[in-house]
UniProtKB/TrEMBL annotation:
It catalyses: 3-methyl-2-oxobutanoate + acetyl-CoA + H2O = (2S)-2-isopropylmalate + CoA + H(+). CDD domains: DRE_TIM_IPMS. It is an enzyme of class 2 (transferase). Gene3D superfamilies: 1.10.238.260, 3.30.160.270, Aldolase class I (3.20.20.70). HAMAP family: LeuA_type1 (MF_01025). Residues 117-390 form the Pyruvate carboxyltransferase domain. This is 2-isopropylmalate synthase. It comes from the Eukaryota. Pathway: Amino-acid biosynthesis; L-leucine biosynthesis; L-leucine from 3-methyl-2-oxobutanoate: step 1/4. Its EC number is 2.3.3.13.
Length: 662
């Protein structure tokens, strides 16, 4: 594959020139290995125009001045001679190749390469607003680390004013992830959200100021319905507030300020231009245009971005951004339309999680630009390391408890599955017949080329190697914990699948701080007598507790036994169990969502409405026994609730804090 990729070339076609046979061959090879190639023709007075591949290859004129040059980076470049910059890019190193283009130096209000698109990830803020998606500070820090490995440009770490825990989470991310500069000089911008008031802005700045590149993101609504019913303010009042609060951000020492006119998709465009012009004067460096309720369609949203860029005073001195909700299922299309219209920051979430129908999916946008950026988007590209997508998706799924639908694009379980006989026949002959990308591109590994089969005779080295193949780099202690669970499972199951391993990772590594943990469980159930559960749990300080209860079934009895030990009144909001793989010996994964009955211990301020809302907490468990899996999930959710700061359980809360501090 490498030798074929090396055949790719930079190609320049002078006016009245032809594409030589050598260049035609290179073009054919590039297409075969998935590299979309574009051509530009230079005309009189250094003018240029883009020509189609078919047109370029069909020339039959006498000159033969095409000049193919080998590209050591295994990428196809088409340069514009009089600008001296890349007009198009395409991968030419085959499936799974990592992007090698160096990202431009970060400057808040401009990007030196006009084809570069910044990726702004808001999984930890907008994504966490999904019902049941609450994450602890530790989990948010883990996700932020993975987002940095993914290579996103900006991490919106949260809404610091929401609660003390949210502020602490943003602060810890800013201190650690926001100062971890890699060998290329990359370090993500750490952003905090704030409404247009000083209390929110002070909290946001306190959270992000420790980062090497801090940003405050302020917003205020601009649509008539929001002005009349939510804000109860006039247009002039909103303009004044926006201008003053952006200026206040600047006065704190923040030089990277993002402003969003909430519900811009339903706002008067001329009024939005007026607001944007004022905040630019006050110091805003990025203007984010939200389709807050997912109301627009791609053509409409693209035209809105173009109109705002053309008619806003000072627009040339800032970056335009998109933020699209998915209420009509058009978030990805709207975001890409915005990028084509000139937006150079795209706001997204992992797995597309978010309020209501969700947000724009990072993996969909990034892979769309990756696959079609050269052909349809005039050479747009991102700095995302796509091989980290699968791991990021799995981590967010495990921490939030929000499962990815099987047919979800890019990361769904069926995204690379082929059951139709016609499709299978095509895949056997050439994978390109029915796949526009491979699972390896996003770091998804489904087969082991070395022939390793994981079973009871497999050792730590084999397990570690397989987990690395799947994209997991574990600390020694985490690896040892997973290995112990792996050996226990292997004694009961002949062959361990990748799905089984990922379930064990979820159950051992992607868990909140263990205040309580399951030690032993005994269940008696059936049609004769009441189902009874007796269990032993390790609690704060390592103290052992034993509880017993009866219930309507084995899971109900087990949960009541847990309640008799933990003594935190909660409501079970959601319960589901699924098999990881086929077969009677499959590992079961369970997801539960709970809500504290003592609402004072789990409240937060909603970023958009300002109302106090009560969090729900999810938990995941895995075991070859569905009752054990269910209990693990329930305890996981309780640990998350306790770790978050449940006021009625000070003993457990203090124990959790001690564990985190150590």
């Amino acid at each position: 594959m490498a030798s074929r990729a090396a055949a790719a070339a930079r190609v320049q076609i002078p006016v009245n020139g032809i594409v030589s046979k050598e260049v035609q061959q290179q073009h054919f090879v590039a297409q075969q290995i998935g590299a979309p190639v574009g051509f530009f023709e230079r005309g009189p007075a250094k003018s240029e125009r883009r020509v189609s591949n078919r047109e370029a290859l069909a020339r039959h004129l006498s000159s033969s001045s095409a000049n193919p040059l080998a590209d050591v980076r295994n990428r196809v470049f088409i340069r514009c001679p009089h600008r001296g910059r890349q007009l198009a890019r395409a991968e030419a190193s085959g499936n799974g190749a990592a992007q090698t283009t160096r990202r431009p130096e970060y400057i808040p209000n401009r990007i030196d390469d006009p084809n570069y698109v910044r990726i702004f990830d808001t999984t930890l803020r907008d994504g966490e607003q999904s019902p049941g998606a609450t994450m602890t500070s530790k989990e948010k820090l883990d996700v932020a680390r993975q987002l940095a490995r993914l290579g996103v440009d900006i991490i919106e770490a949260g809404f610091p004013r929401a609660s003390p825990d949210d502020l602490e989470a943003v602060r810890s991310i800013a201190k650690e992830v926001g100062n971890a500069v890699d060998e290329t000089g990359y370090v993500p911008v750490i952003c905090g959200l704030a409404r247009c008031n000083k209390q929110d802005i002070d909290a946001a700045w306190e959270g992000v100021r420790h980062a090497k590149r801090p940003r405050i993101h302020v917003f205020i609504a601009t649509s008539e319905i929001h002005l009349e019913y939510k804000l109860k303010k006039t247009r002039d009042e909103v303009v004044q507030i926006a201008r003053e609060m952006v200026g206040y951000c600047k006065s704190l020492g923040c030089n990277d300020i993002e402003f969003s006119p909430e519900d811009a998709g339903r706002s008067d465009p001329d009024y939005v231009c007026r607001v944007l012009g004022e905040v630019i004067k006050a110091g805003a460096t990025t203007l984010n245009i939200p389709d807050t309720v997912g109301y627009t369609i791609p053509k409409e949203f693209g035209e809105l971005i173009a109109y705002l860029r053309k008619n806003t005073e000072g627009a040339e001195n800032v970056i335009f951004s998109t933020h699209c909700q998915n209420d009509l299922g058009l978030a990805t299309g709207n975001t890409l339309a915005g990028a084509v219209a000139g937006a150079r920051q795209l706001e997204v979430t992992i797995n597309g999680i978010g309020e209501r129908a969700g947000n724009t999916s990072l993996e969909e946008v990034v892979m769309a630009i990756r696959c079609r950026g050269n052909n349809l988007f005039d050479g747009l590209y991102t700095g995302v390391n796509i091989k980290q997508i699968a791991v990021a998706s799995r981590m967010v799924t495990d921490y939030t408890g929000i499962m990815v639908q099987p047919h979800k694009a890019i990361v769904g379980a069926n995204a690379f599955a082929h059951e139709s006989g016609i499709h299978q026949d095509g895949m056997l002959k050439n994978k390109g017949t029915y796949e526009i990308m491979s699972p390896e591109d996003i770091g998804l590994v489904r087969a082991d080329a070395a022939g390793l089969v994981m079973g009871k005779h497999s050792g730590r080295a084999a397990l570690k190697a397989r987990l690395q193949k799947l994209g997991y780099e574990l600390e020694p202690k985490d690896l040892e914990d997973v290995f112990e669970r792996f050996k226990g499972l292997a004694d009961k199951k002949k062959t361990i699948t990748d799905g089984d391993l990922e379930a064990l990772i979820s159950d051992e590594v992607f868990q909140p701080t263990h205040v309580y943990s399951l030690v032993d469980l005994q269940v008696v159930t059936g049609t004769m007598g009441l189902p009874t559960a007796t269990l032993k749990m390790s609690g704060p300080g390592g103290q052992m507790h034993i509880g017993s209860a009866v219930g309507s079934g084995p899971v109900d009895a087990s949960y009541k036994a847990v309640d008799s030990i933990v003594k935190i009144p909660v409501e079970l909001v959601e319960y589901s169990v699924n098999a990881v793989s086929e077969g009677i010996d499959s590992v079961a994964t369970t997801r539960v969502v709970i809500r504290s009955e003592n609402e004072a211990g789990s409240s937060q301020i909603h970023s958009q409405t300002g109302a106090e809302v009560h969090r729900s907490f999810s938990g995941n468990g895995a075991s070859e026994d569905i009752v054990v899996s269910s209990v693990r999930a329930y305890i996981s959710a309780l640990n998350k609730l306790i770790g978050f700061g449940y006021e009625s359980a000070p003993r457990e809360k203090q124990a959790a804090q001690k564990v985190v501090a150590s």
